[in-house]
Amino acid sequence: MSDVQPATASRSPYLELRDLKVSFATEDGLVRAADGVSFSLERGKTLAIVGESGSGKSVTSQAIMGLHPKRSAQITGEVLVDGTDIVSASEETVRSMRGRNMAMIFQDPLSSLHPFYTVGAQLIEAVQAHGEVSKSEARQRAIAMLDRVGIPNAARRVEEYPHQFSGGMRQRVMIAMALINNPDLVIADEPTTALDVTVQAQILDVLRDLQGEFQMAILLITHDLGVVAETADDVVVMYGGRVVERGPVNEIFTRPRMPYTWGLMSSVPNLTDPRGTRLTPIPGQPPSLINLPTGCVFRPRCQFSAHVEDAWCDTKRPDLEPVGPRHDARCFLSVSQMAALAPRRADGEEVA
Amino acid sequence: MLGYVVKRFGSMLVMLAGLSVMVFLLFSVLPADPARLTCGKTCTPDVVEANRQRLGLDKPLVEQYAVWAKGIVAGRTFNEGQGAAEFTCPAPCLGYSFSQQENVTDLITEAVPVTIWLAAGAFVLWMTFGLTTGVIAALNRGRWPDVVLQGISLVAYSLPSFFVGLMLLILLIVQMSLLPYPDYYPPSEDLKKFLVTMVLPWVTVAFTSAAFYTRLTRTQMVETMGEDYIRTARAKGLAERTVTVKHALRAGLTPIVTAAGLDLGILLGGAIITEQIFNLPGMGRLAVESVVDSDLPVITGITLVAATFIIVANFVVDMLYMVIDPRVRLA
Question: Which residues pair with A222 in a beta bridge?
Fold first, then answer.
């Protein structure tokens, strides 16, 4: 089975994951945090990874950055960034790529910025980590970047400390720090989770503008489907450490093909629903990554396993199979069953 | 920020004033009679009584304190207009030691440099060693360098300085004759003798302290290495050494500076055991001698100076917080 699927045949992807497996040895057993993750992403595009906490999205993104400590994490498979395999490359190679080829925007900008150094100092050292740049030149670049991400009075604020910034401004600083070396891939790990809604929109706008300008690939990690619908080109749905569905954003939102994705979609409020419509949560708990259920990982929470012949869901792991144009799902239901069983809104449309 | 410094400085002065009261009360509640100590074994009750009046010890405590405290600020003259030989004690006058026939201030000024040298050398040793080993242990958490360093530091931390000091003295000086017997000279007079004498006291004091700082630094580093901003630093592509020292160690420095400042302050009051073992004429030895002789003016003088060191150390530590942590500057 080949999971490799170039988004478009003409250009080679900037980022490509092939059967990535990350596991951690713990006292309770081996935690398979990412188990055979494959997807690809090209420059100028945005790929969203969605899933619950513990689905393996952050573990996957940190593997792309090469941030897992070699001592505790066992990593196999390939993570190709611009053709270089992060998994097998030397520590020094990966270090020199971090910040320049791939950069990361973290979730909580207050705890992700060093409290004892000025914003300027933290930006300057990022510039100086990648090449011989004088301090004054690095400082000019820091100010220009802060200005570019929409921080007023950048020349003055560059001397201030993170605690002197508001939450939204701090996240802009994080974005400036990630982009200051013009990386071709930016991983945004829940970049708006810690922010209030109006600021969320501003931050997403900043990211979109910068993508238009610099043509970088964005890997957006989130559990906010609203953000996904607004910003992503492609979507990867993760569950229990594996990709359970992936495809273009329109496909995933209009024709989700995997019962877990259906569950995600129906747990989000929709303005077009009649008043009084109740949200449907997904029953049960995410699986323990130490003791995965036999058969399909989602089976214990799936209401549709009865439709599958010979109780395959209990015994076999489904593969990621094509279910539409550039659209794959990990489910034993046949494509026609999927179409028939997909939850519908009151107006008869499939969930959107 | 300036307001904070002024406020903190003011509270230090208040503490020093309160301290002087406490120390003076100590002087008056001790069982020894200061008037009895002004003359030798041949003292008659009449002489004791005369000396009591001469020194103003028959006056109320408040008045006595005023005279003593004024002496510290402005100096004082003993036997003024009382027929006996007058002598002056210039400010800061901490009193006069009758058993040593010398101003307490002079006795202390002779002893303090020795203790400062001892404390400074030991401080440099234990901080260098403690921080280095602590960082090494933290970076190798759970592996053999960590286990070995943790083991050694636990043993070292458990050994009292009189044991370490005596062992070094017996092994290196008495049995192996690697070093001469300690004989203190100020570094300005004979640098070589100074160093040869000081090396073992430095090691003795630093030994136990370093162990504490190894453990403290390790704990701090293990904690800060797990912080989000360390991950950010790595994600920027910084070299691991920069991440470790500039980001992790700096972030964990606050409690280390606190402990180091106070330890240094305490040590400046005199390392009683180490100075005794290695025959260093510092504050610790002066303290022991004055206690043995019930030399009350010296005891109170040393207590006051030692406590002042600690209060000043506290103040300096508070000021250093502002240097380390910009968030404190605004508070």
Answer: A50
- Same domain for B303 and B203, yes or no, is yes
What are all long-range contacts of A300-307, with beta carbons under 8 Å and residues at least 24 apart? A301/A260, A301/A263, A302/A259, A302/A260, A303/A259, A304/A259, A304/A333, A304/A341, A307/A333, A307/A337, A307/A341
**Are A279 and A269 within 8 A, CB to CB?**
yes
Are residues B236 and A99, on separate chains, in Cβ contact within 8 Å? Answer: yes
User: pLDDT tens digits, residue range B245-290?
Assistant: 999 999 999 999 999 999 999 999 888 999 999 999 999 999 999 9
Read off the tokens for B221. Answer: 């580093």
Q: Do A126 and B228 touch (CB under 8 A)?
A: no
Last residue of a domain, one of B104, B126, B142: B104
Chain A residue numbers touching B227 (CB-CB < 8 A): 111
Q: Which amino acid is at A199?
A: V
The parent domain of residue A309 ranges over: 258-341
Question: Min CA distance, B264 vs chain A (Å)?
Answer: 25
Please tell me if residue A113 touches chain B, with a CB cutoff of 8 Å.
Answer: yes
**Chain B contact set for A98 (CB, 8 A):** 234-237
Same domain (yes/no): B69, B132 = no
Distances (CA, A) of B322 to A120, B223, B224, B314, B318: 19, 21, 19, 13, 7
Q: Say what the pLDDT of residue A349 is.
A: 56
- Which residue is closest to A174 within chain B, CA to CA? B232
Q: Which residues in chain A (83-112) have CB-CB distances under 8 A to chain B?
A: 95-100, 103-104, 106, 108, 111-112
Query: Which residue in the block uniquely carries the two structure tokens 């007058």?
Result: B86
| Total tally of structural domains belonging to chain B | 2
Chain A, nearest residue to B252 by Cα: A116
Q: Quote the mean pLDDT of chain A.
A: 88
State which residues form the domain around B14: 2-104
Q: What is the mean pLDDT of residues A60-79?
A: 92
In chain A, how many domains are there?
2
Query: How much is the average pLDDT of A165-182?
Result: 93
- Chain B residues whose C-beta is within 8 A of a chain A C-beta are 227-229, 231-240, 242, 246-247, 250-251, 324-327, 330
Q: Do B159 and B94 share a structural domain?
A: no
Residue A270 lies in a domain: yes
Cβ-contact B323, B317 below 8 angstroms: no
| Residue A180 to chain B, least CA–CA distance (Å) | 10
Q: Which of B104, B130, B162 lies at the terminal end of a domain, its last residue? A: B104
Q: Which of A97, A112, A177 sits opposite B228 (nearest CB)?
A: A112
pLDDT confidence of residue A290:
86
A312 inside domain = yes
